[in-house]
Amino acid sequence: MTFLHEHGAARRGAIRLAALLVCAATVLWGQAKPARAQTPSSPRAGFITVASTTSTEQSGLFRHLLPEFSKVSGIEVRVVALGTGQALDMGRRGDADVVFVHDEAAEQRFVAEGFGVQRFAVMTNDFIIVGPKADPARAGGRDVLAALKAIASTRSPFASRGDKSGTHAAELRYWKAADIDLATVKGAWYRETGSGMGPTLNLASAQNAYALTDRGTWLAFRNRGDLRILVEGDTRLSNQYGVILVNPARHPHIKQAAGQRFIDWLISPAGQRAIAAYTIEGQSLFFPNATRQGQTSATPQGQ
Fold first, then answer.
1. I want to staple 76 with a disulfide (CB 3.0 to 4.6 A). Which of 41, 156, 169, 234 is the partner?
2. What is the largest CA-CA distance in the chain?
């Protein structure tokens, strides 16, 4: 009986101690909440989720742009870097407030289908083809289609993203324009990584393969090995970026005001200057053109 009595007393003491700890934690939490609310990333200041491309993230552009926007708005931008196709799918599911991508045809479909409110052109850069310095396919020059024909005819190693990104979509358009049926001709020489631009360039560097890349990611890429720029300057290599607010009529939880504020800043003179100011080794990576490009819009469904 003594044992049972002592055991029960100990148990009641443990329960009282646990209750006191819960009360203390509640008090401390209540005291801590106001201080946390003062930070830019807190619910009071707000955050938005932007689904964007690996090229904007891996080039370092967002590390340059986002602190400037957050400083003037108090809004934190959380970026999910994916291929353009996956980024647009995030928007379709309502898992992002804004999409910032580079496949104009896919962006226009996104808006036309009612998933986005309006597409705004933001900036451009260009694609290039890189490859081994020796250029075994003799692909070097200004003509992207002639280069791809040379690579395919010699079965020279080519690293493709293969991830339904904007860069992958552009690559497939170039093969088609060059009258090359990849389904028929591709073999071991055509190597799909299913990943972003950085990993694809790493594969190209390791295997002395050719690859199509955006110039911004290339300039930020350091593991170049024997790779060099072999094809550039073809007007068909232009790479346009657009930004779209996900339609709140489809997904009511979308942070419409904060998302639109981010878009408005990107296409404003301040945002465009910030984009132009980003350089690596003295070279501009992106060229703002919001005032020189048209926009695609649709009436939000349900409004």
1. 41
2. 95
Q: Report which of residues 41 and 51 the model is more confident about.
A: 51
Mean pLDDT of 258-283: 96
Is the pTM higher than 0.90? The answer reads no
CATH number at 65 reads 3.40.190.10
- Indicate the pLDDT class of residue 264, thresholds 50, 70 and 90: very high
Q: Do the domain assignments include residue 22?
A: no
Distance between CA 165 and CA 168 in Å, rounded?
Answer: 5
The residue to which tokens 């324009």 are assigned: 177
Q: Check whether residue 220 and residue 277 sit in a common domain.
A: no
CA angle 293, 88, 209 (to 5 degrees): 85
Question: Is the domain of 229 the same as that of 254?
Answer: no
Q: Over the chain, what HEC string results?
A: CHHHHHHHHHHHHHHHHHHHHHHHHHHHHHHHHHHHCCCCCCCCCCEEEEEEEHHHHHCCHHHHHHHHHHHHHCCEEEEEEECHHHHHHHHHHCCCCEEEECCHHHHHHHHHCCCEEEEEEEEEEEEEEEEECCCCCCCCECCHHHHHHHHHHHCCCEEECCCCCHHHHHHHHHHHHCCCCHHHHCCCCEEECCCCHHHHHHHHHHHCCEEEEEHHHHHHCCCCCCEEEEECCCHHHEEEEEEEEECCCCCCCCCHHHHHHHHHHHCCHHHHHHHHHCEECCEECCEECHHHCCCEECCCCCC
Question: What is the average per-residue pLDDT within 258-267?
Answer: 97
- Owning domain of residue 79: 47-125+239-297
Residues 113-118, mean pLDDT to the nearest whole number:
97
> What pLDDT is stored for residue 11 in this prediction?
42
pLDDT at 262 over 90: yes
